[in-house]
Specification:
Blueprint: H1 3-10, H2 14-24, H3 53-69, E1 77-81, H4 88-98, E2 101-104, H5 121-130, E3 134-137, H6 139-149, E4 160-162, E5 184-186, E6 197-198, H7 199-204, H8 207-219, H9 241-247
Parallel strand pairs: 1-2, 1-3, 3-4
Antiparallel strand pairs: 5-6
C-alpha cells in the first residue's frame, strides 16, 4: 500500500486528503504520485502546468478564497468552462475547498469545432439548467464563452471568475468550510440533480487514488480506470450522459 492509498483510507473528503498530502509531501508531483503515468492526459503528453501537491493546494485555496470573496456560498453551483485537460483541476479543487458544487463543462475539440469557439448549444443548455452562481473560465476561452452565454435566460447576471488571474498569494484568505462525506461536490453535465456526486462518493472509490491526475483523466473524457489499472475520476461519475457531456462541444 502506497502512502497515498493509506492516506486516502483515513481521509473523509478529497479536500482533507489533498491538504494532508500538501503537508506531508508538498514537492511530490500530483500527476506522478502513482508512478508518473500520463496516459490519462489528452494526447498522452505531460503538460507544462503539472503541479505538486503543495502548489495544487495553494491554487485550490486561492480559487476558493476568490469564490468566497465573490459571495458564492457553500452548496451553490459553479460551472467550469475550460478546454479538456489539467487546466480544470485547480478550478475543480477550488470549488471543493469552498464547498461549492462544481459542474465541469469541458470545451472539447470534436466534430471540427475548436475549444476556443466556446460552448456548443447543447452545453449552453446544460449550463442554464445548472443555474450556477458563478462561471469559472480561462483567459483563452473567456471571450467566446461569454459571447455564447450572452442573453441566455437565467445567466445574464451570473459573475465570471478567470482563475488564471487569481494570485496564489491570496490562498491565505481562504476560510475553511464544513465539508463532510454527504456534502454535494460535483454535478456531471447532462444529468439531473439526483446524480450529484458527494464527497464520499469521490473519495470512497478509486477516484481518491487519482487525486488531481485522475480528475484530469475524467474531465478530459477518458472512461474507466487509468492505464495500467491506475484509477481516475471516471469511476466516480455516472455513466452515459456524464461521458457525453465530457465529449460534446
Amino acid at each position: 500500500m502506497t502512502s497515498l492509498e493509506h492516506d486516502s483510507a483515513e481521509a473523509v473528503t478529497l479536500v482533507e486528503l489533498l491538504r494532508k498530502m500538501a503537508t506531508e509531501q508538498p514537492e511530490e508531483k500530483v500527476f506522478s504520485a502513482l508512478g508518473g503515468d500520463v496516459a490519462l492526459l489528452p494526447s498522452g503528453a505531460m503538460p507544462a502546468g503539472v503541479m505538486t501537491f503543495g502548489e495544487l493546494d495553494r491554487a485550490a485555496r486561492a480559487i476558493a478564497a476568490a469564490l468566497q470573496r465573490a459571495g458564492v456560498k457553500p452548496g451553490e453551483r459553479a460551472v467550469l468552462l475550460y478546454p479538456t485537460g489539467v487546466a480544470l483541476v485547480p478550478a475543480l479543487y477550488g470549488c471543493l475547498y469552498a464547498g461549492v458544487v462544481a459542474m465541469p463543462a469541458p470545451l472539447s475539440e470534436v466534430e471540427g469545432r475548436s475549444a476556443l469557439a466556446g460552448p456548443s448549444r447543447w452545453l449552453v443548455s446544460m449550463i442554464a439548467a445548472c443555474k450556477p452562481a458563478i462561471v469559472l473560465s480561462g483567459v483563452g476561452t473567456l471571450l467566446a464563452s461569454r459571447a455564447a452565454l450572452l442573453g441566455v435566460e437565467g445567466l445574464e447576471d451570473v459573475p465570471w471568475l478567470v482563475t488564471e488571474a487569481v494570485s496564489p498569494a491570496s490562498a491565505a484568505g481562504w476560510r475553511e468550510v464544513a465539508i463532510g462525506p454527504d456534502t454535494p461536490a460535483l454535478l456531471p453535465p447532462g444529468v439531473g440533480d439526483g446524480a450529484v456526486v458527494t464527497h464520499a462518493r469521490l473519495l470512497g472509490g478509486p477516484a481518491s487514488l487519482g487525486l488531481g491526475r485522475g480528475a484530469a483523466g475524467w474531465l478530459s473524457g477518458q472512461e474507466g480506470s487509468g492505464a495500467g489499472g491506475k484509477p481516475g475520476l471516471a469511476s466516480a461519475a455516472p455513466p452515459g450522459k456524464a461521458r457525453a457531456g465530457s465529449s460534446a462541444a
